[in-house]
Specification:
The complex is a heterodimer of chains A (210) and B (526).
Chain A: H1 12-40, H2 42-45, H3 52-59, H4 74-78, H5 83-92, H6 94-102, H7 109-129, H8 133-136, H9 151-157, H10 164-167, H11 184-195, H12 201-207
Chain B: H1 2-12, H2 20-27, H3 34-39, H4 47-64, H5 85-92, H6 97-104, H7 107-111, H8 115-119, E1 129-131, E2 134-136, H9 142-145, H10 150-156, H11 172-180, H12 184-187, H13 189-193, H14 238-242, H15 245-248, H16 258-263, H17 266-273, H18 297-301, E3 330-335, E4 340-344, E5 355-357, E6 363-370, H19 372-383, H20 389-423, H21 435-456, H22 460-487, H23 491-500
Antiparallel strand pairs in B: 1-2, 3-4, 3-6, 5-6
The chains are: A mainly alpha (210), B mainly alpha (526).
């Protein structure tokens, strides 16, 4: 090996380890990319019945049907753009699977509706902590023109200290009020009216996960 | 005036309920006339005059809040000028820029009152929402305006305007839903009467109830009414609210053509000619002092005139109910919490402290009672700024005569006939499922109201051609024939007996009174 001018500590074993490690590393990265891609697909997310309720509203939104033909997938918005971030998000997302299996019956539309606000609050918080990074994957704040006369000026001049999600929420999924003014009783009453339940039934079902 | 009303008080057994001082003044034989009233604020009055003064102050206090000028906001200016307001304005100069530019023209802007001062909300408010980091509410209710405009809020709550939805809420569906249909109320009835605004569980306002600026709107905070019904937001121009057009959105059309009546009256004629002399932008707007060119709706129904204070209790000066099947002279009963009730002359007049049931079912305690004569007196004080006393009384006499005519000749018999048919099982209880119910409805609600309103505001055309002429035509040519047909074998008893004894209808039984009125030539040989 010394003939080739490589340092003496590069022994045959080290070389093999480097090659195997390098290929292994590439394979791991490739796996993570594929894994993140696979688990960010709409089909994967909606493979749990509980997620089909979110899918319904999404399919009526501008993020599904846009004039430009761009369609944002579940993962485009709800998974971080970076590989490590995406991997981390999916690892944390395992808790959703655990809750789906062991928690309340989110497949039940009533239970799903009753728990929706907390899910929305958590999602908004996730966006806010990342400075709406997944929005910025497609939307460039400086480039926003909008249809109304002053949309561009508003995005340049009125956004100090704000991130996308601070203003742009309730765009895709069912409307949920901001956490600060959320009124559980009013929400429960709406769910009861929607599903024809007796008054108080919503609170009871929330208290006793089925 | 005082002698007459005292006599009336005694007759009705309501003496001393209005004000003990007033009664004592009356006992001393003091006569209230215009000179005395005009002396009031100079304070030059001796013994009995002092009592009279106290009494009158109390009466006018009840009538309008005790001031002859627009109420100044008493709240400390430190209480407004919310710091977040400039952010609102900055962004809304770009988004919905019309809002901000209207506000920039407003007295609110000059006084430093910004978006947040009116739109801020508590997190616990039913209609609170998060908007650009702030907790606000879209709806600015009278209660919100009342944070600064206390007097106006106090007067407006309980007024016939504030109750405009509560009064009809129970009976509305039988017309709006049956004859109209889903969605009709939101676009029509509710836009004048108001809606019961519903905040949905997801925090949005139910579009079946909002947008709405009806004057009796039930707001999410429980207050009633909508200031922006008359005061166009976001400019809130004094001049705009004083214009007759402020009332036209609702007070026009077949059932309450007050716009058309005003325009067709001498008042409207002079107003149109001298609109530029109305001093509409004056900070204070006392008829006879700040302007004399012509009256608008506001002048007579709300405005300050001479010593009469302005009021946001719009129905206060109305001695009659003009939009009922039969008009009643009405008492205004003021409850302890400021709410008001109208009670017809002839019904049992409550005593001070007595419990009463409000239109919405809640109980209330009586604070004071204002007689129809007092209400008429207040209205007449406006007239007196430009007209003589006998002229004013003469006009009121003409008006009262028309109302009494409608009542006695048409309103009362038609109601009795309808009740007879219903009682005899010839009509179903469901309204509007029989043609005669439309006939009867239009008789009092449209044609009858037009006649009465026409006479009340001096449009000869509305009093007769658009009003009583149509009432008569309806009564003789539609209502009675339909009623007889429905009554069938009992027509004599259920229909004809009701009008048989009335002198006003006796001409019907004299078929040979020839006249050229129809344009027909007299028969040959006559």
């Amino acid at each position: 090996m010394a003939r080739l001018g490589v340092p003496l500590f590069i022994t045959r074993h080290v070389l093999i380890a480097l090659v195997v490690g390098g290929i292994g590393g590439v394979l791991v990265v490739a796996f993570l990319i594929e894994f993140d891609r696979f688990t960010s697909r709409n089909e994967f997310c909606a493979s749990c019945h509980s997620m089909t309720y979110a899918e319904e509203t999404y399919q009526r939104s501008a993020h599904f049907n846009s004039a430009s033909g761009v369609r944002a997938s579940c993962g485009d918005c709800h998974v971080s753009p970076s590989l490590l971030g995406a991997t981390w998000d999916h690892a944390v997302g395992l808790k959703d699977l655990v809750k789906q299996l062991l928690g309340p019956d989110y497949d039940d539309p009533v239970i799903n509706s009753l728990h929706l606000p907390e899910a929305a609050f958590a999602a908004r918080d996730w966006f806010r902590r990342r400075d709406s990074a997944s929005c910025r994957r497609c939307h460039v704040q400086e480039a926003i023109q909008g249809e109304r006369a002053n949309t561009a000026a508003i995005h340049r001049e009125e956004t100090e200290g704000k991130t996308c999600i601070d203003c742009h929420y309730n765009l895709v999924h069912r409307k949920v009020p901001d956490e600060r003014i959320f009124k559980r009783e009013a929400w429960n009453q709406m769910v009861e009216e929607t599903f024809g339940l007796e008054p108080g039934e919503a609170a009871r079902r929330l208290a006793q996960p089925e | 005036m005082c002698h007459e009303s005292r006599a009336l008080h005694r007759r009705l057994g309501v003496a001393a309920r209005l004000s003990p001082e007033l009664e004592r003044a009356g006992e001393k034989g003091t006569r209230i006339d215009r000179d005395k009233i005009s002396n009031l604020d100079s304070g030059v009055s001796g013994g009995s005059g002092r009592l009279l003064w106290a009494g009158l102050c109390l009466v006018f206090g009840l009538l309008g809040g005790g001031q002859a000028i627009a109420e100044k906001v008493k709240l400390d200016p430190g209480q407004w000028g919310h710091e977040a307001g400039k952010d609102c304005v900055s962004c809304h100069s770009k988004a919905s820029a019309g809002l901000a530019s209207q506000w920039r023209e407003s007295a609110h802007q000059s006084a430093g009152v910004n978006c947040m001062d009116c739109h801020q909300a508590e997190r616990s408010d039913a209609d609170a929402m998060e908007h650009e980091g702030r907790i606000i509410a879209t709806i600015v209710s009278p209660k919100d305006c009342g944070r600064c405009h206390e007097k106006e809020y106090r007067e407006q709550q309980g007024s016939v305007h504030a109750e405009a939805f509560s009064i009809i809420e129970a009976r509305l569906p039988a017309l709006a839903e049956h004859v109209g249909g889903s969605g009709m109320s939101a676009a029509s009835c509710d836009q004048c009467h108001g809606s019961r605004v519903k905040v949905r569980g997801d925090g949005t306002l139910d579009p079946a109830t909002w947008p709405n600026s009806g004057i009796g709107r039930i707001n999410p905070d429980g207050s009633k009414g909508s200031c922006s019904s008359c005061h166009g937001r976001h400019r809130f121009s004094r001049a705009q609210a004083r214009e007759p057009e402020a009332c036209v959105r609702c007070h026009s059309g077949p059932d309450s053509p007050d716009k058309e009546i005003f325009e067709a009256s001498k008042h409207g004629m002079i107003y149109a000619a001298h609109r530029d002399e109305m001093n509409l932008n004056a900070p204070e707007w006392v008829a006879g002092r700040d302007y004399t060119a012509a009256p608008t709706c506001v002048t007579c129904h709300m405005g300050a005139a001479g010593k009469l204070p302005s009021t946001h209790d719009v129905g206060m000066r109305n001695a009659w109910s003009l939009n009922t099947p039969v008009s009643r002279r009405q008492y205004l009963v003021i409850l302890e919490d400021g709410a008001r009730l109208e009670l017809p002359l002839g019904s049992e007049i409550p005593k001070r402290g007595q419990e009463l049931v409000r239109p919405d079912g809640r109980p209330g305690q009586v604070k004071s009672v204002i007689t129809p004569e007092r209400r008429r007196q207040a209205m007449s004080m406006v007239c007196l700024e430009c007209h003589g006393k006998s002229f004013t009384e003469g006009f009121m006499n003409q008006f009262d005569t028309v109302v009494a005519l409608f009542n006695d000749k048409y309103g009362t018999p038609a109601k009795a006939i309808m009740e007879g048919l219903l009682g005899a099982g010839r009509l179903t209880p469901t309204p509007f499922d029989e043609p005669i119910e439309f006939t009867y409805w239009e008789l009092w609600h449209d044609e009858g109201a037009r006649a009465r309103h026409g006479a009340s505001m001096m449009s000869p055309n509305h009093a007769w051609w658009e009003g009583m002429y149509l009432v008569g035509r309806n009564f003789y040519a539609r209502f009675l024939p339909q009623a007889r047909a429905i009554a069938g074998d009992r027509a004599g008893e259920l229909v004809d007996a009701v009008i048989a004894g009335q002198a006003a209808h006796q001409w019907l039984i004299e078929p040979n009174q020839a006249s050229a009125i129809l344009g027909l030539e007299p028969a040959e040989g006559d």
